[in-house]
Amino acid sequence: MKVAGLKRFIENDHGLSKKPRRERTDKQLADLIQGLDGPRTALQELFFDLEDATAIIGWCATELSSMAGRGKSPEEAIALGKISALLKDQQAIISLYADEVKAGRIVRSKAE
Questions:
Q1: What is the CA radius of gyration of the chain?
Q2: Which of 6, 18, 85, 90 has minimal Cβ neighbours within 10 Å of its Cβ?
Q3: Considering the domain boundaries, does residue 62 fall inside one?
Q4: Structural domain containing residue 58
Q5: How far is the CA of 8 from the CAs of 15, 19, 20, 21, 29, in angstroms?
Q6: What is the pTM of this model?
Q7: Residue 1 banded pLDDT, cuts 50, 70, 90
């Protein structure tokens, strides 16, 4: 049996004909998308809070490093450099916590 004949056999004789693909309306898509940003679980909140803290600390460390390069005195530059290094270390620790939350090794439940 040729491919075209086989296709016709399957479609006609076995009720497997292709049905037209149902297109989603704009409202259906909007409803679907809106459902994706629903309430977060406590674990998701923890993960995203840790990710946000990591990003903010990283930005602060970068800004302090930049300020240290423009320091008015060597002592100020050294102090800003030390603060920046401490923040980068803390950023790494918080990032590890976020990874543990994501992997399910740290669990947080909603406070009642």
A1: 28
A2: 18
A3: yes
A4: 40-112
A5: 10, 14, 17, 19, 34
A6: 0.58
A7: very low
